Amino acid sequence: MRLHIIVSAALGLALVATAATGWAESPGTPTETDIGKALAPKTRGLPTMGTMPPAPGNPAVEPTSTAPPPKNPKPKQGTPVATTPADAHPSATLRSIQFQFGSAQLTPDSLDTLKNLGNALNHELADQAHFRIEGHTDAYGEAGLNDKLSKERADAVKDYLVKEMGVADGRLEAVGKGSADPVAGSSPFSSVNRRVVVVNLDG
């Protein structure tokens, strides 16, 4: 009987530990390091000999191209086509920043990402002076209302970073894109277009 109790207790502790580990390693919230790497300037670091495979990224942080697509690109034969334009600013789409339906009220689930973003701006990216916070919507509803809502959401993110995380107001600008800049390859009405994008304008 005593052995049964000990085994049951051990199994219970193992389940608790497994659950805790799974929560901590969830890819839903990007870490401070993930965000710092995504927004780091491309020229940072010294050249090294040889080639090292890139570290796997967190799927919660999506690098985003900020350069306009080339007009009628005609790559030379045998020359690989770059998937990210060389002149694009470092940027990241943070889908774990969410809002209440139809409003600019941040959800509680967004706070961990916002804190990690603020810490990255204050630590890894402290030497970078200017960032743009973009709010994006899908194409449902009136364009004017979507423009207004996307700007209010970008403002809400900026306000949190300034007031709660101590990021200097002058380093951040908030813009609303509405539905004018959908994710490449998606329908303008797709939910993937409802997102917050942070761009390092100095990178």
Can you put this structure into words, describing what you see?
Helix 2 (32-39) crosses helix 3 (111-122) and helix 3 (111-122) packs across helix 4. This protein has helices at 2-24, 32-39, 111-122, 143-165, and strands at 61-63, 91-94, 131-136, 172-178, 195-200. It has a domain at 88-203: OmpA-like domain (60s Ribosomal Protein L30, Chain: A). With 203 residues, it is α+β, with helices and mostly antiparallel strands. The chain contains four helices and five strands; from the N terminus they run ααββαβαββ. The model is unreliable at 1-27, 46-54 and 72-86 (pLDDT under 50). Helices cover 33% and strands 13% of the residues.
Brief overview, please?
This protein is an alpha+beta fold.
Task: Report helical residue fraction.
Answer: 25-40%
Across the major sheet, the strand order is 1-2-5-3-4
SS-derived structural category = alpha+beta
Distance between the termini: 65 Å
Would you list the SSEs in sequence order as H and E? HHEEHEHEE
Low-confidence stretches: 1-27, 46-54, 72-86
DSSP, total strands = 5
Rg value: 21 Å
What general form does the structure show? globular
Question: What is the number of helical segments per DSSP (H or I, 4+ residues)?
Answer: 4
What is the CATH T-level topology of the domain at 88-203? Answer: 60s Ribosomal Protein L30, Chain: A
Q: What is the highest CATH level, the class of the domain at 88-203?
A: Alpha Beta
CATH architectural category of the domain at 88-203: 2-Layer Sandwich
What is the CATH H-level superfamily of the domain at 88-203? OmpA-like domain
Which percent range describes the beta-strand content? 5-15%
Mean pLDDT: 78
The main sheet comes to: 5 strands, mixed
